[in-house]
Amino acid sequence: MTAGRRISYCWAVWWHSRHDSYLIGEPNGTTRTALFPTRRAARTYIAERYGYIKKRLDLQEEPHGWKVPTPVKVQVIVEMETRP
Q1: What is the reported pLDDT for 60?
Q2: What b/e string do you get for 1-28 counting C-beta neighbours within 10 Å, with b at 16 or more?
Q3: 37 with 63: CB under 8 angstroms?
Q4: What local confidence, expressed as pLDDT, does residue 36 receive?
Q5: Helix or strand or coil: residue 16?
Q6: How far apart are CA 25 and CA 18, in angstroms?
Q7: Residue 59 to residue 52: CA distance in whole angstroms
Q8: What does the alpha-carbon distance between residue 54 and residue 41 come to, in Å, rounded to a whole number?
Q9: pLDDT confidence bin for 14, thresholds 50/70/90
Q10: What separation, in Å, do the N-terminal and C-terminal C-alpha atoms of the chain show?
Q11: Can you tell me the distance from the alpha carbon of 73 to that of 71, in angstroms, rounded to the nearest whole number?
Q12: What is the pTM of this model?
């Protein structure tokens, strides 16, 4: 068997509030992290889906403490294995 490894970089969306933080999943509701090829694509997704938070002071204050998500660069490592 031969194994290979591929490393690439892409962008994800980081949700953060005063209470917790995590990477945001795909729009279809799966638990997988949504990945974007460019920072611009991640920022467009954030603006379309979470842009309302900028205008909602009630969500930014306690008890919610929400902040607009930010794009973060992530490293993706894919382990490949070939079978004989």
Answers
A1: 86
A2: eeeeeeeeebbbbbbeeeeeeeebeeee
A3: no
A4: 93
A5: strand
A6: 19
A7: 10
A8: 19
A9: confident
A10: 6
A11: 7
A12: 0.73
Sheet hosting strand 2-16, strand order edge to edge: 21-23, 2-16, 70-82
Q: Which two structure tokens, joined as six digits, stand for 70?
A: 């930010």
Q: Which residue has the tokens 């382990």?
A: 79
What CA–CA distances, in Å, run from 30 to 14, 18, 22, 27, 74?
16, 24, 14, 8, 19
- Calpha distance 33→42 (Å, rounded): 12
The pLDDT tens digits for 27-67 are 555 557 788 999 999 999 999 999 999 999 998 888 888 88
Q: Which amino acid is at 71?
A: P
Tokens of 37: 């090829």
Backbone angles phi, psi at 18, to 5 degrees: -70, -15
Q: What is the pLDDT of residue 17?
A: 74
